[in-house]
Every structure is written in structure tokens, then in C-alpha cells.
Design goal:
This protein is an all-alpha fold. It has 15 helices and no strands. α1 crosses α3.
């Protein structure tokens, strides 16, 4: 039970950091440079993780890193940047809260995780709370809503695909590969479309440090760790802390109004997260899945040495003589 609470708490770091990222992006980063904004978020984060885990992709991870980098980083970051600039902080983060249901239904065919009653109930309650908060959101633009909703679909598919492919690949290394690949995809496109990079004043530099190191490097590592150790439905529900953080920060720092209706919505979101927390049966299923295939985390009977062996490119090469 203590271990389960630890994984939930670690995973929660990601949506809280992402909820704050909407405020930082809207208030401090240039509104007309979404491509550079996404690239300067992804590439420094990927290089920082590569400095911590100096491993290069091997075998199938060359093309997997490219695909996941495109979904989880390049496309997703640009859409989130655009949504952050087009929508109030509370509204932008709230739209993303439909991701639990999206992740659950994508995870069903891709990783054979059938949505459980508790997960569906929690998602419905949380989504109702999100709708309650969203109805009070002022200044919601249609392009902003579309950008945020598309980001939900792209990231949900990318995150479940990450869970399917992760197996025993080193977590920090595979996260670094995705972020670096996504950043490298974005740089030439940004240069061609947006021209020169934005001016890096001290406030902008501090903001980029937050979005790259905290809201990306730290947050994605925590999120992918949760995907290895918890059911996708549970991780998706933990993601509901994203709009909670966005609404609270928008109210406290950006002067956005917090009404009784929004408070009730926040309470429903938190209730949905609690309802969808993993039970013992979920954890046993996750352990069996991890031992039986390339999905999930290291099984209880697999030692760290074996996990490291599975990550070693040399372990895949046949030995002769």
C-alpha cells in the first residue's frame, strides 16, 4: 500500500507542474512563437536527461523515439503552447481534463487494460466537475478549445503507446530520447516558419528554465514512471490535478475569478481522482502484465540487474565463438 501511494504521489508531480506551465507560458513567454517555444521547452529537457543517463537509442528505439517524440513532444507542445496563449489559464488546463476517458479507451485495445468500473466512475465524476468549472470560464476562444482538445487526443495516444512500448527500456534514457527527438524535429520548422528566435530576456529565460526542467524533464519522468507502475486509467485520473492547479493558479496569480460553482467542480475532480485510485487487484494485474510482456514496469521477480541487462544494446546482439 505504501509503495502504491508513493507511485501515485510521484505521478501527481506531472499534472501539477503542467497546470502551472499554462500560467507561466501565458504570462512570461512570447505569444507569437509557439514553434520556438515548444522547441526551447523540449530540447534542453532532453539534453539534461541525456546528461544524466548517457545512453543512445538502440534497435527499434531509434524509430520508436522518433514516433513518440513527434506525438508526445513536437505536436503536443505546440498545441499546448497555442492553447496557453489563446485561453485563460483555468480554461486551458480544464479542457485537458478529458484525457482520463481518452486514455482509458485508447489503452483498452493497445495495452489490453479494460476500463474498470471505478476508473469509469471516477472519470465521469471528474469530467462533470471539469464541465462545471469550464462553464464559468470567461474568454474561451474556439481555436484555443480546438488546440487543447487536439492536444488531449495526441498526448493520450502517445502516452498509451509509450506504455505499450516501454517494456524494460531505461526510463530516463527513453524519456530523453523522446524529448530530444521532438526538439530536433521542431527546430528547423521553427526557423523556417518563425524566423529568428525570440529575445531571451531574464524573465523569459527563467520561464523557459521552468518549462524545460520542471514542467518537462521532471514532469515527464514522473508521468512515465507512473505509467509503468499504475494502470493507464489511474494515471489518467491523476492527470485531473492539472485543471485543479490551473484554476487555483489562475485565481491566485492571474486574477481570474473563483466562484462557488468552480469550487464544487474542484471537489468533484478530486473525488474522481480518489475514486479511481488503484486497488490491489489492479496492482496484481499490472505486475502480471509487466512480467508477461513488454508493457508495464519491472516485475516483482525481476532484479534491477536483469532490467539493466534488458536495456543494454549489447544484450540484444548475438555472441559468436
Amino acid at each position: 500500500m505504501e509503495a502504491n501511494v508513493r507511485w501515485v504521489a510521484l505521478t501527481a508531480v506531472a499534472p501539477v507542474a503542467w497546470g502551472a506551465n499554462y500560467y507561466v507560458t501565458r504570462e512570461f513567454l512570447p505569444a507569437d512563437r509557439p514553434l520556438y517555444g515548444a522547441a526551447l521547452r523540449a530540447l534542453p529537457a532532453g539534453l539534461a536527461l541525456l546528461a544524466l543517463r548517457r545512453r543512445r537509442p538502440y534497435g527499434v528505439w531509434w524509430w520508436r523515439s522518433a514516433v513518440l517524440g513527434l506525438l508526445n513532444v513536437s505536436v503536443f507542445f505546440v498545441l499546448v503552447y497555442a492553447a496557453s496563449q489563446l485561453l485563460p489559464t483555468s480554461v486551458a488546463s480544464t479542457v485537458m481534463a478529458v484525457s482520463p476517458l481518452t486514455m482509458m479507451f485508447i489503452a483498452w485495445p493497445l495495452v489490453a487494460e479494460r476500463p474498470r468500473t471505478a476508473h469509469l466512475s471516477g472519470a465521469v465524476i471528474g469530467l462533470a466537475g471539469v464541465c462545471l468549472m469550464l462553464l464559468m470560464g470567461a474568454g474561451a476562444s474556439v481555436p484555443g478549445i480546438l488546440a487543447s482538445a487536439t492536444a488531449v487526443l495526441v498526448s493520450s495516444f502517445g502516452h498509451v503507446l509509450t506504455k505499450r512500448w516501454s517494456g524494460n527500456a531505461d526510463l530516463l534514457a527513453s524519456t530523453a530520447w523522446q524529448l530530444t527527438a521532438g526538439g530536433l524535429f521542431l527546430l528547423p520548422v521553427a526557423a523556417a516558419v518563425e524566423g529568428t528566435p525570440p529575445a531571451l530576456t531574464p524573465p523569459v529565460c527563467v520561464a523557459f528554465c521552468y518549462v524545460a526542467l520542471v514542467a518537462t524533464a521532471l514532469a515527464f519522468t514522473a508521468w512515465f514512471t507512473g505509467l509503468r507502475h499504475l494502470p493507464a486509467g489511474t494515471v489518467g485520473l491523476i492527470g485531473l490535478l492539472n485543471p485543479v492547479t490551473g484554476v487555483l493558479l489562475g485565481t491566485a496569480l492571474a486574477g481570474e475569478a473563483l466562484t462557488v460553482q468552480q469550487i464544487c467542480g474542484l471537489a468533484m475532480v478530486l473525488a474522481g481522482v480518489v475514486l479511481g485510485r488503484p486497488r490491489r487487484a489492479d496492482r496484481r494485474a499490472g505486475g502480471r502484465e509487466a512480467n508477461g510482456g513488454n508493457v508495464g514496469s519491472r516485475g516483482p521477480n525481476q532484479t534491477p540487474a536483469l532490467a539493466a541487462h534488458a536495456c543494454d544494446p549489447a544484450a540484444e546482439r548475438p555472441r559468436h565463438g
